[in-house]
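Pilot study result, target chain (191 residues):
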Amino acid sequence: MGTGASALAVAGHVLTAARVASAAPILTWAGAGHGRWAAGLLAFAMLTDLADGPLARRYGKPSRAGAWFDVWADFLVVAAAFTGLALAGTIAFWPLAAVVASFVGFLATPGVDGGIYDPVGRYLGAILMAAAAGMLWSQDLLLQQWLATTAGLVCLATTCVRLGFAVRIAQPRSGASCAPPKGSRSVSPSR
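Predicted structure:
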């Protein structure tokens, strides 16, 4: 690998680290009521999220550690935006709690029995970043509240789905069934 390719091999990690570094200013600016500054930095963070994985796969060696670094970076940025907005009184605290619960649910269930089917969770980081950017950029309190509520409900839904599948997968398979045994007659209530 040449010098340029070597630099590109670490570029994915550098972009992810830049996203982590953006969390503190996003929190500070959002909490101080400077939503548009925070939204601009969040837009930069979103671009780094789009680029880091493809760079790692194309020029580096993608790894589980790199994937986890990406997940944590996404969570820190989203949590920073939601925390700043909640501290500023723009949104309630429950959507932030739902974001945290969703992340904890994700941490508790990856790879259980080959994975968890969660179609929303796959895109949850992007959904939450877009909702946070909209809340930070907008000056319309009703839109901000709607985005926060929607994001919170999506987090609660994906948490329930993820934990429900994890519980179902973790249950031992005993062969027990609720269906009547073969050859038995089912009895229906009489009218």
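One observation from the pilot: The chain has a mean pLDDT of 83. A full batch analysis is planned for the follow-on phase.
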